[in-house]
Amino acid sequence: MDVVKLDSIDRRILHALQRDGRLQNVELARAAGLSPSSCLRRVKLLEARGVIKRYVAVLDGAKVGAGLSLFARVWFKAQDADTTNHFIASVRDMAEVVECHIMAGECDALLRIVTQDLASYRKFHAEQLTRIASVQSVKTEVPMETVKLTHALPL
């Protein structure tokens, strides 16, 4: 995948959109120092080039019954492609798994899991996560405090 060259105007547009994806084009143009038509053209180009993948609403998990984030380190029964692919296909269908990273290092996968509380995580762990055929073991890490959580990339 090629890195897209961004100039300072593109970066201003992206910074503004990462702060507020609902900015009206006129406001975005003002923030970027462009006319509205030039700004819209640049945004469309950033979308077409895949720099802007999509727009989403960031929810407050506690207010929608998904306020507990946990991290699970997962070890597979084997290291072959079939085992890894089976695991990936399984977790893609699990709404509680909001991030899945296949790892190099001690564990095979690192998951960020969001649930309502520890009881709901225990049920998810017992009834879904550990029942994936390719999973050998799971170690759960419970964060005590979230100090920083952002979706904004450094530009």
From TrEMBL:
<dbReference type="InterPro" id="IPR019888">
    <property type="entry name" value="Tscrpt_reg_AsnC-like"/>
</dbReference>
<dbReference type="Pfam" id="PF13412">
    <property type="entry name" value="HTH_24"/>
</dbReference>
<dbReference type="InterPro" id="IPR036388">
    <property type="entry name" value="WH-like_DNA-bd_sf"/>
</dbReference>
<keyword id="KW-0805">Transcription regulation</keyword>
<protein>
    <submittedName>
        <fullName>AsnC family transcriptional regulator</fullName>
    </submittedName>
</protein>
<dbReference type="InterPro" id="IPR011991">
    <property type="entry name" value="ArsR-like_HTH"/>
</dbReference>
<dbReference type="InterPro" id="IPR036390">
    <property type="entry name" value="WH_DNA-bd_sf"/>
</dbReference>
<keyword id="KW-0238">DNA-binding</keyword>
<dbReference type="InterPro" id="IPR019887">
    <property type="entry name" value="Tscrpt_reg_AsnC/Lrp_C"/>
</dbReference>
<feature type="domain" description="HTH asnC-type">
    <location>
        <begin position="6"/>
        <end position="69"/>
    </location>
</feature>
<keyword id="KW-0804">Transcription</keyword>
<dbReference type="Pfam" id="PF01037">
    <property type="entry name" value="AsnC_trans_reg"/>
</dbReference>
<dbReference type="InterPro" id="IPR000485">
    <property type="entry name" value="AsnC-type_HTH_dom"/>
</dbReference>
<dbReference type="InterPro" id="IPR011008">
    <property type="entry name" value="Dimeric_a/b-barrel"/>
</dbReference>
